[in-house]
């Protein structure tokens, strides 16, 4: 299933609840607020300097899932949010994410982002770095408008942690020896920290702290970990029929993700040499991606990575038991199921 | 005169007030608080990811002037600051600046920063982008700890405006036709906005608003404009005996600063061709920098740029008349004189 930009573009308002996925129901539930978030996002991308809205809108309109701001909205609505502070926070969360994407593409020398040419390919690395900085500045401005110092603490901490995770990833790039602990530290910082902050601000902006805040922090953290693990599984096709165009980015960039780490650990000498040549030396031939996909499957690396994701998914769902029951809480539970079911 | 890192390294505690420059007196006055700022800066640069303190300390220990955090401290002390909130804001201001330098060097392909190899030359563009992002995140975290939403508004707005100014500069790079208005818009955003925010937060963090806040906002704004104009004059040697190693960076990078814009506007066809070849086409020969310095002097471009800086310096000094008189206020007036006197 494709996940699109707005409630209008995806979630049918009269969808059948019985067959609807967690994310479809999430989109339908937060749809009206997401329209406010989207309007704010376009306003935040505005500038008299033409290059800024040009680049920002290239990303903003490129069909990203907007999962993070939807999670912020849902988390706030769990605690009966009113007003517009949670809308501002949701837009800020999406801009933090967008700024990260712009810089990531520069760091990774990426050619493609969301099926379109990466901004850096069209406008260059210089503009991508600077417009990323602008979006981050706008994100902080918008958070400040939400008026909660505790939310600012949560989100500014996430901002530093995300960058720290990217540097950690860079320092272990193209290395198979760093192993599982390093990988987990990277994805916790670069991905799960923002999911966690995105959901933690929900109770806070509605005046809740203590157990509710801690529960939503953990929910986002574990969902983010599961989400990234499944993303990394999908880069090798998951357990689905292969869709060539969606696979192999991590492989080509020499990223030692968990499927690769597991497969490498279970390899004989010949296969270890294969992984070293591809991941560490970056010498990749035409047939290597297919061979890599074969190896991560036959060694059980894919299944075991999915099992790790399931473990975190369980923790995310458990965290929800510390917030009051509601249909929206059930939806957030189903979002966890959905994140993992993408692998199949 | 060189400006150094701390009060200890420069300002003699028993300096003769009659011969001391404004900046020397500023350093002496805020010295004790700057030691707290410096300790905080080193703490903020800490991380378990080794590459981060390595790169951050390369810049932090490279003898930058730390003029901006000193201005924040002085501005807060004008209004009898106590506690440590102003120290946190000063450190955050310096980190915002440091993050900008890391990204600027990537954008400008710079080889040298403060007389040392630029971080990007040693650790690469990727690490420079990501560590810049980390420093910005740490800056925001530290601002949040200061606990003032109004200061957060001021500084986050500056953060977005600075990036906007950098993009504006990029969009007009290597163009002589953009002219004086474009140049002024660039330096107001990329330089003066941070000076302005750095001084505006002084009254705010001490509980003052209204006229005091507006006065210190204007003081920093106009000081920042004067400061950048004189920096751009100094890149062509100012009116001093030439110091080859300090000149020509802007010229080599094709930056159409005000001295160049004025000289170009006053040129005959042959000289116009010279400037176009050097600035717009980037075809620079060994003897061209000397020729450029000759031209910006003989056309009066240097003198007239200094005159513009003097005009802003006057406005900065005038702004101080709206805050209560004190020896420290006089020192801030002398800082303006010092900023301009650097040209001679």
List the helices and strands and how they pair.
2 copies of one chain form a homodimer.
Chain A: H1 22-44, H2 51-60, H3 67-77, H4 85-108, E1 112-113, E2 116-117, H5 119-146, H6 149-171, H7 179-205, H8 210-234, H9 249-252, H10 258-265, H11 269-280, H12 288-298, H13 301-320, H14 327-341
Antiparallel strand pairs in A: 1-2
Pfam families (chains A, B): polyprenyl_synt
Cofactor (chains A, B): Mg(2+)
Keywords (chains A, B): Magnesium, Metal-binding, Transferase
What's the gyration radius of chain A in Å? 20 Å
Named CATH architecture of chain A: Orthogonal Bundle
Q: If helices are DSSP runs of H or I spanning 4 or more residues, what is the number of helices of chain A?
A: 14
- Look at the structure and name the CATH superfamily of chain A: Farnesyl Diphosphate Synthase
CATH hierarchy, class of chain A: Mainly Alpha
The most extensive interface between chains reads:
A-B, 41 and 41 residues
Main sheet summary of chain A: 2 strands, antiparallel
Portion of residues in beta strands of chain A equals: under 5%
Give the terminus-to-terminus CA distance of chain A: 11 Å
Structural class of chain A: mainly alpha
Shape of chain A: globular
Family (chains A, B): Belongs to the FPP/GGPP synthase family.
Organism (chains A, B): Amorphus orientalis
GO molecular function, one term (chains A, B): all-trans-octaprenyl-diphosphate synthase activity
EC number (chains A, B): 2.5.1.90
């Amino acid at each position: 299933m494709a996940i699109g930009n707005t409630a209008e573009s995806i979630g049918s308002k009269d969808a059948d609840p019985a067959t609807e996925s967690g994310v479809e129901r999430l989109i339908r539930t937060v749809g009206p607020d997401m329209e406010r978030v989207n309007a704010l996002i376009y306003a935040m991308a505005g500038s008299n300097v033409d290059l800024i809205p040009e680049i920002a809108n290239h990303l903003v309109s490129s069909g990203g899932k907007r999962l993070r701001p939807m999670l912020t909205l849902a988390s706030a609505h769990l605690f009966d949010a009113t007003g517009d502070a949670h809308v501002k926070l949701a837009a800020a969360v999406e801009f933090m994410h967008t700024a990260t994407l712009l810089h990531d593409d520069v760091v990774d020398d990426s050619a493609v982002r969301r099926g379109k040419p990466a901004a850096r390919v069209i406008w260059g690395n210089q503009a991508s770095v600077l417009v990323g900085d602008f979006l981050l500045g706008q994100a902080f401005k918008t958070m400040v408008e939400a008026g909660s110092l505790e939310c600012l603490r949560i989100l500014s901490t996430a901002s530093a942690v995300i960058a720290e995770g990217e540097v950690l990833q860079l320092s272990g790039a193209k290395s198979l020896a760093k192993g599982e602990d390093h990988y987990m530290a990277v994805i916790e910082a670069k991905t799960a920290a923002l999911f966690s902050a995105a959901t933690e601000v929900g109770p806070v902006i509605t005046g809740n702290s203590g157990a509710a805040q801690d529960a939503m922090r953990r929910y986002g953290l574990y969902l983010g970990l599961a989400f990234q693990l499944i993303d990394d599984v999908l880069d090798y096709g998951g357990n689905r029929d292969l869709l060539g165009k969606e696979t192999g980015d991590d492989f080509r960039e020499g990223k030692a993700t968990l499927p690769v780490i597991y497969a490498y650990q279970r390899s004989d000498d010949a296969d270890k040499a294969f992984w070293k040549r591809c991941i560490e030396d970056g010498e990749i031939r035409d047939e290597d991606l297919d061979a890599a996909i074969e190896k991560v499957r036959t060694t059980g690396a894919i299944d075991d990575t999915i099992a790790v994701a399931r473990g975190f998914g369980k923790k995310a769902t458990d965290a929800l038991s510390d917030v009051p029951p509601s249909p929206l809480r059930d939806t957030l539970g189903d979002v966890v199921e959905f994140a993992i079911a993408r692998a199949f």
